[in-house]
Amino acid sequence: MGALEEALEQLQHVSRAVPDEAAPQLALANTLVLLDREEEAVDRYRTVLELEPGHISATGNLAVVLLRLGETEEGPQRVVEGVQGYAAIDDRVSALELLEFGLEVARSVGVEEVLERLEELREHLAPKRDLP
Questions:
Q1: pLDDT tens digit string along 25-70?
Q2: Domains 1-52 and 54-132 share a fold
Q3: Which of the four pLDDT bands, split at 50, 70 and 90, describes residue 126?
Q4: Architecture of the domain delimited by 1-52
């Protein structure tokens, strides 16, 4: 058993011990992503959002995973929510990073309507002169 699998086992134990705590659920979801178990991670991110609606990291990570899985409805909406959440706490850098990563993933899965929605958000969030 590798280090990630061991970490996953420990996190599963902790998340069962404190099921109403978002932090262990988030750590578990992130570990599942590292292990390429993205479908399971989606459920854990959703659990975090049930426990703490609007949790920025869970929203952003869920957005990326959903886009990787080809989810063209909820994925872009979660990107928008995540970007807005980061913007609300004046974390423009994280907002743009999430948006750019969302665009990158959307391009890789080749979903035109997703790209259009995210490009519109990008235009709204930052003037072109601020973007690389």
A1: 999 999 999 999 999 999 999 999 999 999 999 999 999 899 889 8
A2: yes
A3: low
A4: Alpha Horseshoe (1.25)
**Burial class of 65 by CB neighbour count within 10 A (0 to 12, 13 to 18, 19+):** buried
Number of other CB atoms surrounding residue 36 within 10 Å: 8
Q: Which two tokens stand for residue 111?
A: 């979903």
Assigned CATH class of 54-132: mainly alpha
Q: At 56, phi and psi to the nearest 5?
A: -65, -50
Structure tokens, 122? 């990008």
pTM score of the predicted model: 0.81
Classify the phi-psi angles of 110: left when phi > 0, otherwise alpha if psi is within -120 to 50, otherwise beta.
left
Give domain limits for the chain: 1-52, 54-132
